[in-house]
Structure prediction request, 512 residues.
Amino acid sequence: MLEVCVRRKQGSFSIDASFRSKVLGITALFGSSGAGKTSIINMVAGLARPDEGRICINGRELFDSEKGIDLPPEKRRIGYVFQEGRLFPHLSVRSNLCFGMHRTNSSDRYVDFDQIVQLLAIEHLLCRRPAGLSGGEKQRVAIGRALLTSPAMLLMDEPLASLDHARKAEVLPFIATLSREFSIPILYVSHSMNEILNLADDIVVLDSGRTVVAGSFDELISMQKNTFSGIIEQIADNNGSLPDVRLNIGCPLLARITPGAGNELGLRLGRKVFVPIKRA
Amino acid sequence: MEVFTLTSLELEALRLSLWVSSWAVLGSLPLGISMAWILARLRFPGRSLLDGLIHLPLVLPPVVIGYFLLVFFGRRGVVGGWLYETAGISLAFNWKGAAVAAGVMAFPLMVRAVRLSLEGVDNGLEAAARTLGCGPWRVFLTVTLPLIVPGIMTGMILAFARSLGEFGATITFVSNIQGETQTLPLALYTLTQVPGGEMGAMRLCILAILIAMMALLTSEMLAGRFASRMRG
Prediction:
């Protein structure tokens, strides 16, 4: 179980988010850029300190301002796949992969080096330096490096952004399996609706640092507040029939609405809306 | 080829110069890296003051520094007296004092070079190392330090060259004693002051140029090697 409840002021922007996922699966953080997704996972990783709150994984407290608990990042056993990869330029790919693995107690290890290398198809890269790798290759090595620490939880900040479709299709099920097989919760940040629909068990929608809604898909659909937040970009009126509304919710989203409903809701360009999630 | 044969005075000066400069560089390296790190990474009141203090030798007349060293590190100075009483180390009028003078004068150059490369290190890499299970010290040793090796090299070479050329602070602090504190520039100065010393002075000039060129070439070569290792 993952429990996050954090408050932090950074300049004029403040984060006040709170969510919990019951499942040992993948929790997707969703929201437009600047909604505070990366700030929140940095707090979970211990790279940023919340002003107050509580972060707890499977009953293990990582941060609790009331009890004065604040584990340093290296004690949290959290694997973090950064958006930009952040491989060490002075080390070979093999040394990058082993960097965290060597610092994990052998009794805590549950991920095998050869298995990861094979799954991510990075065997031919092992002797090279990160500077010579393509974006996709770097990202795969970064995923491998985080997994090889055998983490208690995995944080992924847009990990697949630089992968092509074929590789994505390969890595996505792998991530899903990982979470289930080793019962590690994954906190996943993405702009891609497709990835989230494919992966996420739970979803957390953020808007300007605040949790709009959080829960599993089924819960969200049964809720009144089952929403995404976004801005209306375009309304295409198809000659009086159903108008198409184009929304920017971090990624473009098209919705079809009856004209009557559109008028009633007062849809107009630039207006902020919350978009209900519906099953296809 | 008698013209090119070094006299014992010149040989002594060369040997002493290399010895004093090496000690000056190696001795000030740990402190130089720490200061560079403090200035590059920490924000605290008095930071500009510390920055200014470290840079003083760069802008003050070397004689002033030499005089301060004499006052504080001389046998009867506050620090010097204490050093002599507790550790039995005396810096007055011997090569150790010359190394301290050279080290102090070269210190700002070393700190500047290391600090510049520290500021170029991506904080994100250090954060990544933290999430991979390294404490702050380990991160410094395994990620930060290897990444600033070129800066440390540059700093060491610059400081070494500066130490070789040190004159004012040395002569003020530890005087000009042949075989003890008479480094290459001091020997050169002495030779220009005595009749018939022109040839010797010229030889030392050429020697100084050769050493400086070698230091620069070495630094270029090491930088090139490091860059190609990173491209790998």
Summary: The mean pLDDT of chain A is 80. Residues 129 and 136 of chain A are 14 Å apart (CA to CA). Helices of chain A lie at 37-45, 93-101, 113-119, 135-147, 165-181, 193-199, 217-222, 259-265.
